[in-house]
UniProtKB/TrEMBL annotation:
The keyword GTP-binding applies. PROSITE patterns: RAB, RAS, RHO. Keywords: GTP-binding, Nucleotide-binding. InterPro entries: P-loop_NTPase (IPR027417), Rab_GTPases_membrane_traffic (IPR050209), Small_GTP-bd (IPR005225), Small_GTPase (IPR001806). Gene3D superfamilies: P-loop containing nucleotide triphosphate hydrolases. This is Small monomeric GTPase. GO terms for molecular function: GTP binding; GTPase activity.
Length: 218
């Protein structure tokens, strides 16, 4: 792993019911591709993307795409604690997926407390509105986002609308939280990694080994 490519790594988890389009969003963002048929996520899939959050500050975004089915929840729960960000995704044409957002939010908060996680609420498949298939109004979604203390974005992997915005909003919010102290680097936690810190630790190990070698030589 070349630590010179990025200064920080953020782990972000995709949350929401099955079929809301989490994998399609990631495919569009990381590869700029949209597939009409995409294999259902089994357990957890991984995606990586690099983003310059400000001039000269490169962040490695590691996404965990979780399965929404109940039978995989015991697997996906184990990934909550090592995430610093979460996209709460629902399908604007599927009211049940919107009503389950609070459940996803509560479940994640239960596992990460007392530490903070940065969320963004995403109303996916916004293209369904043109077909008259909208089941959740924008006002309802914005009200929920306000109650959860987060930002709301409507997006479509099919058309590409606001997909980049979804991921960049959460990444920049995490970076801002890191600067303000809202989120912190913690020992033994993989939600945020610092390449500078890792380089310092590596140098410390090398210095220690060299010191031991000199003592043996003496």
């Amino acid at each position: 792993m070349d630590l010179t490519l990025w200064q920080y790594q953020f782990r972000i988890i995709m949350l929401g019911d099955s079929t809301v389009g989490k994998s399609s969003m990631l495919k569009r963002y990381t590869e700029d591709k949209f597939l009409e048929c995409i294999n259902e996520t089994v357990g957890v899939d991984f995606y990586v993307h690099f983003l310059e959050v400000e001039p000269g500050m490169m962040v490695k975004l590691q996404f965990w795409d979780t399965a929404g089915q109940e039978r995989f929840r015991s697997v996906t729960r184990s990934y909550y604690r090592n995430s610093v960000g979460g996209l709460l995704v629902f399908d604007v044409g599927n009211r049940a997926s919107f009503e389950h957002v609070r459940d996803w939010y509560a479940e994640v908060c239960e596992h990460v407390m007392p530490h903070a996680m940065i969320f963004v609420l995403v109303g996916h498949k916004s293209d369904r509105e043109l077909a008259g298939e909208r089941a959740v109004s924008k006002d309802e979604a914005e009200k929920l986002a306000a109650q959860l203390g987060t930002t709301y974005v409507e997006a479509s992997a099919k058309t590409g609308q606001n997909i980049q915005m979804c991921f960049e909003v959460v990444a920049r919010r995490i970076y801002q939280g890191l600067q303000s102290g809202e989120v912190r680097l913690r020992e033994g936690w993989d939600g945020i990694k610092s390449s500078v810190l890792q380089a310092q630790q590596l140098q410390s190990i090398q210095d220690s080994e060299q010191t031991k070698e000199k003592k043996r030589c003496c």
